[in-house]
Amino acid sequence: MPHRIRRGGVPLPTGLAWPWHLWHELPPGESGVGAGTTGGDRVAMLHAVILGASLAAFWLLLSGYFTSILLLSLGAVSVVVTVYLTLRMDRHDGERVALRIDLAIVRYWIWLLLEIVKSNVDVAKIILSPKMSLSPRMVRVKATQTTDVGLVIYANSITLTPGTVTVDILGDEFLVHAITQEAADGVTHGDMGDRVSALGAR
User: Fold this and answer.
1) Are residues 76 and 137 in the same domain?
2) Which of 129, 127, 109 is nearest to 163 (CA)?
3) What would you measure as the largest C-alpha separation in the chain, in angstroms?
4) Bridge partner residues of 170 (DSSP)
5) What is the separation of C-alpha 84 from the centre of its chain, rounded to a whole number of angstroms?
6) 10, 30 in Cβ contact below 8 A?
7) How far is CA 74 from CA 78, 79, 80, in A?
């Protein structure tokens, strides 16, 4: 599991101020970003702007409201509160996930999409079959990922694939429900875990 990032011994402030100066992962004085400089402030501001714009666009896409002043105002308030809470949470745990989209991640998305399609076809065949040959079971799956993000990606990938659901995390293992023996074998003997671990190693 990832370790907590220390702030070079600088105590975390309290209060409701926006924590711009804490939005960096290097101790003060390293790489020109630290207490007394504006590097961390610029990174924090950029992240907040990108996050706010993404949330606003997502809200508009889902709501479909573009003319109601009241609803647009409420949406704007929700975006501001969400960005603020995100920065507040970083003040306490000191961890954040960098947005990184490279070729390996795109390849994994494409591979996962194909796996979802294939699993959908398999589940549809089971449902449409007169025999309805279900054999539900719980299996334990070894998780080799070393980061929280890797574990989340792996667990969610299993759940996104029809026929299997990640039920619980038990130490370095996942408890997975599968509707058939074939689905269980696909999780326990497949290469999904190795693919996710390879993403974390980059």
Assistant:
1) no
2) 127
3) 71
4) 173
5) 19
6) no
7) 6, 9, 10
pLDDT tens, position by position, 8-57: 444 444 444 444 444 344 344 443 334 444 566 777 788 788 889 999 99
Overall pTM surpassing 0.90 (yes/no): no
Query: Quick count: other Cβ atoms within 10 Å of Cβ 87?
Result: 19
Distance CA 19, CA 48 (A): 11
Question: Which domain, by its residues, includes 148?
Answer: 131-200
- In angstroms, the CA 190 to CA 68 distance is 50
Q: What pLDDT digit, counting tens, does each position of 102-159 carry? A: 788 889 999 999 999 999 999 999 989 888 788 899 999 999 898 888 899 999 999 9
- Domain end position, chosen among 93, 121, 150: 93
Q: What backbone phi and psi angles, to 5 degrees, belong to 142?
A: -70, 130
CATH number of the domain encompassing residue 140: 3.30.1370
Residue with tokens 């997502």: 58
Sign for the CA dihedral angle at 115, 181, 155, 142 comes to: negative
Query: Is 174 within 8 Å of 140 (Cβ atoms)?
Result: yes
Distance CA 36, CA 30 (A): 12
Categorise residue 24: left if φ over 0, alpha if ψ from -120 to 50, beta otherwise.
beta
The residue among 60, 57, 84, 54 whose CA lies nearest residue 72 is 60
